[in-house]
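Tokens in:
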């Protein structure tokens, strides 16, 4: 099975000494039958008191409390993971054996992952109608939407925080992986599927050291398959090169590192370097 060593370094530099408020760090994957977490190390400079918890989605979150002042904050996460992807044959087998529709209980529990604003529903539904109209099962319709996002839209780096709405991405015909994940989520919800936003990492062969960045994609819930990964940016489906870290109903709820600082007139700059190295 694929195995990776991942190093994620973030450095915030401040123009003058600042006091750091508590920070929330989504950097540690959850282990399950699709991912085995090995060695894991989190280093903060300046040092902080770190307490781990699970948020309402079950994600692992490190809450860090700092004392004193600092001119720089460095966060380094180092993890080893092994992934256990499903093949297309296995997915098709599960679909054949499973049911096609949500049970009343599933529909109730998954409601927050299905609901969407009416204007988003209308814009995304209109985009879907422009695609092939041949009768297909839900799974194939999802694959088709992911493929269309990959081929119809231009990937564009954007370093400012925040997300484009699906309607904005449709209008611009471009976006980041975060924007494509949000569009894929909206497409899935528009055909009645529960979907959520995932942040994590992707292995990119021949990437220069430190040149990668956190990645984002969508997961969609089908009764027969459970949560299935759909990375519309790279065209990856339930792929072993994806390492999920955390998930939520929307990308606005997930930032790998979040927190605040205070200091008279201080400004900040940020540098991020991610390495995903395949070790097996």
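Residues out:
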């Amino acid at each position: 099975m694929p195995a990776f060593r991942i190093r994620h370094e973030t450095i915030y530099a401040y123009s003058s000494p600042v006091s750091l408020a508590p920070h929330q760090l989504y950097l540690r994957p959850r282990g399950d039958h699709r991912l085995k977490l090995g060695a894991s190390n989190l280093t903060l400079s300046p040092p902080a008191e770190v307490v781990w918890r699970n948020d309402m989605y079950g994600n692992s979150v490190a809450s860090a409390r700092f004392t004193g002042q600092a001119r720089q904050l460095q966060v380094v996460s180092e993890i080893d993971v092994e992934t256990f992807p499903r093949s297309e044959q296995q997915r098709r087998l599960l679909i054949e054996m499973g049911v096609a529709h949500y049970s009343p209980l599933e529909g109730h529990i998954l409601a927050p992952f299905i609901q969407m604003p009416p204007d988003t529903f209308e814009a995304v539904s209109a985009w879907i109608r422009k695609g092939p109209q041949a009768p297909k099962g839900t799974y194939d319709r999802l694959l088709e939407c992911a493929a269309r996002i990959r081929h119809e839209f231009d990937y564009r780096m954007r370093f400012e925080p925040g997300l484009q709405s699906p309607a904005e991405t449709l209008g611009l015909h471009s976006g980041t992986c975060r924007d494509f994940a949000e569009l894929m989520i909206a497409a899935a919800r528009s055909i009645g599927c529960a979907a959520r936003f995932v942040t994590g990492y992707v292995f990119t062969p021949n990437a220069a050291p430190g040149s990668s960045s956190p990645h984002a994609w969508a997961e969609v819930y089908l009764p027969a398959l459970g949560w299935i990964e759909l990375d519309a940016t790279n065209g990856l489906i339930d792929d072993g090169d994806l390492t999920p870290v955390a998930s939520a109903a929307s990308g606005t709820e997930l930032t790998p590192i979040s927190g605040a600082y205070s200091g008279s007139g201080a400004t900040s700059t940020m540098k991020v370097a991610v390495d995903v190295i395949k070790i097996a």
